[in-house]
Amino acid sequence: MLVLVDLDDTLCNTWEAGKYTILRLIPFLLKRRKFKAFFYILTARYRELEQSRELHMMDLDKIVERLLRKIYVGISPGELDEIQELVDRVFFSNLKLFPDTVPFLEGLRGMGARIVLVTDSSTRWQRKKLEYLGIKDYFDALIISGETGHSKLDPHNFRLARQLFPHEDEVYMVGDRDDTDMRGGKEIGAVTILVSRGYFKGRLAKHADYVVKDLMEALEVIRREHEKRAEA
Ligand SMILES: [Mg+2]
Question: Same domain, yes or no, for 90 and 18?
Answer without folding.
Answer: yes
